[in-house]
Design a protein that fits this description.
Blueprint lengths: L1 H19 L20 H4 L3 H15 L19 E3 L8 H5 L8 H25 L8 H25 L2 E2 L15 E2 L1 H18 L14 H16 L2 E2 L5 E2 L3 H21 L9 H10 L7 E5 L43 E3 L2 H5 L7 H4 E2 L1 E6 L4 E6 L6 E2 L23 E5 H15 L3 H14 L10 H12 L9 H17 L5 H7 L3 H11 L12 H4 L12 H6 L6 E2 L2 E5 L6 E5 L1
């Protein structure tokens, strides 16, 4: 009920923000009479409840089916763990995942637009709240502003990771002309992100047993800060086509900042691993069970009957389920409905897990459900290597009452920030600073202990890594020194723990090894030992180009302040045809 009510509030906010918008009309001065239903932006923020509605409107932009509900599944694919099941060009998900996208990709265009829509909503909301009577002494308004600033930081961080230097501002676009801006150096944007998250952590309470993970709390702000600092400390693609990371002294500052945030988690002591274990954690997501112990924040999805406002977690990135056919409308609720299974696991990963590791059979699903029309039943069918699915979200785990609300949508939340990730981020920072490498190992092994996997130490490191080194030796990580051994262990551990959750690709980028990892796994994988290679990312990926997305062509054409410059190329109009060409710089 709480989830349904919250999503209904968010639906109302689509209308509110549409009415608050100016429309960017050049004829607005000709119309002086306002309709009774119009919300005036300057007069809207006159109560705490309206301020909260505005904040919920920012959340709603993330819960859009075309944003984190579905399109965002493509952004972090492919990496060394998974890819999409089809190789044909579609100007959408498959081109993104196989590194053959261009500036006309329709999904990239939508994601770009939705990021800026959310940021603009946040800018409007923050400005409105700060101008309210009694703001300076009102802790609730400060907390609402903190949520808005967290969400602005989350969206801005996506912009930086995906596109690098981009137009960015913290003021609302009140006119058509003010909507356009020049590229802003990502380091300036990082400063704004950190400022927003610092405000958020200082003005939000920690989660309690009664709080919902669908609203951000202090833990979410601190966790996102940790992620931002680690990404900022790592490699990123510059405008000159070079991968670069900060000087060592600056990197140490960022790692120290990660440790400080971790110490706050330790001091508070509330967040921890999910009580039921790893499998129960992921079943809880599919079942719609809210938990705020391991889930620091969940992007909420709830499908209202007859409306296109659910999510696709477990529908497109779960095991395939055939649509039940030949059944009546009254019978349909007895069957699971459809799941398309777009994403396929690089099969070698299954053997990297220990047999005892509870994460293996959660992350990798080796079966699908076919439909027997004669018996009117779904039949579980085991699949061979190369046909295994992402398994962390599954149609079969969803509540029966949600099976056929709509065969294309689901009520499964997406958790972008969870406690296990925080633990591994802290472990990485301790290793990189060299201040307490034993603690780094202890933290890493706490994640393994929850999964019932064997602890790794410097003493048993060679034994634990020997099998993987025979087939997948990470030559791009020097493990001759203690810090290198830990980096290698962490490379694998973040894959085991967090695969398919949206972080792996950006880990590999910040470590400066994405292209090398794709080449290692793509060349060796059994799925590519055939003429039609279903996992072609390693062949298509170009270092110094594909670490960033291209800015959408429509944005380049409409924003004169971008000067026709895309990421690593100059756009110009061809003499031979009225189209845009891209020349690499």
């Amino acid at each position: 009920y709480r989830r349904q009510r919250q999503m209904c509030i968010r639906d109302r906010l689509y209308a509110v923000f549409a009415l608050l918008a100016t429309g960017f009309s050049s004829c607005e001065d000709l119309l002086t009479e306002e309709p009774n239903s119009k919300y005036d932006r300057d007069r809207y923020f006159d109560s705490e409840d309206k301020a909260e509605m505005a904040v919920m409107g920012i959340y709603s932009s993330l819960s859009d089916f075309n944003h984190y509900g579905w399109y965002e599944m493509a952004s972090p694919a492919s990496d060394d763990t998974y890819y999409t099941a089809r190789t044909q060009s579609d100007n959408q998900v498959h081109d993104i995942a196989h590194y053959q996208l261009n500036s006309t990709n329709t999904w990239i265009e939508s994601i770009w637009k939705l990021k800026y829509e959310g940021i603009d909503r946040a800018n409007l909301t923050i400005d409105g709240i700060c101008g309210m009577t009694g703001y300076a002494e009102n802790t609730r308004l400060k907390a609402l502003e903190a949520e808005a600033r967290f969400l602005r930081a989350f969206l801005a961080f996506d912009l930086v990771r995906y596109w690098g230097d981009v137009p960015f501002k913290t003021s609302y676009s009140s006119s058509y002309e003010s909507a356009f801006g020049e590229r802003v150096d990502r380091e300036v944007i990082y400063d704004e992100i950190i400022s927003d998250l610092t405000f958020a952590k200082n003005n939000l309470d920690w989660a309690t047993a009664s709080s919902s993970p669908e609203r951000v709390t202090q833990g979410a702000a601190r966790a996102l800060l940790m992620r931002v600092y680690l990404q900022r400390a790592g490699y990123s693609l510059q405008s000159n086509g070079q991968l670069k990371r900060p000087e060592d002294s600056k990197r140490m500052e960022y790692f120290d900042a990660v440790i400080k945030e971790w110490e706050a988690f330790e001091k508070k002591g509330y967040h921890d691993f999910y009580d039921g274990g790893y499998e129960a954690l992921f079943k809880s997501y599919s079942q719609g069970v809210l938990n705020n112990k391991e889930s620091l924040w969940e992007i909420a999805f709830y499908h209202s009957q007859g409306r296109r406002n659910g999510g696709a977690w477990g529908i497109y990135n779960g095991p395939q389920v055939a649509e039940p056919t030949g059944v009546s409308a009254s019978e349909s609720s007895q069957y699971m409905g459809r799941a398309n299974g777009f994403f396929i696991v690089v099969p070698e990963w299954r053997n990297f897990f220990e047999a005892s590791d509870k994460r293996r059979d959660v992350a990798i699903c080796t079966y699908r459900y076919t439909w027997n029309g004669t018996k009117k039943e779904h039949v579980k069918e085991e699949r061979s290597a190369g046909s295994w699915y992402v398994g962390k979200w599954r149609r079969e785990w969803m509540p029966k009452e949600s099976w056929n609300k709509n065969i294309n949508y689901a009520d499964v939340n997406y958790c972008p920030l969870r406690y296990a990730d925080v633990v591994l981020m802290a472990a990485e920072a301790y290793n990189e600073t060299g201040t307490d490498r034993q603690k780094a190992w202890d933290l890493l092994n706490s994640v393994r202990t929850r999964a019932e996997a064997t602890s790794i130490t410097e003493a048993n490191y060679d034994e634990m890594m020997s099998a993987r080194k025979k087939t997948h030796n990470l030559s791009f990580i020097d493990d001759s020194a203690p810090e290198g051994k830990f980096r290698t262990a962490l490379y694998w551990e973040r894959g085991f723990e967090l695969a398919f959750e949206g972080q792996r690709k950006y880990d590999l980028i910040r470590w400066g090894v994405l292209g090398k990892a794709l080449k290692l796994f793509g060349e060796i994988s059994s799925v590519n030992q055939k003429e039609n290679k279903p996992y072609p990312a390693y062949r298509n990926f170009t270092e110094g180009k594909h670490e960033l997305f291209p800015i959408p062509l429509k944005e380049i054409q409409s924003n004169p302040k971008l000067n026709g410059m895309n990421n690593n190329c100059l756009l110009y109009t061809s003499d031979a045809a009225d189209d845009m060409q891209c020349v690499d710089l």
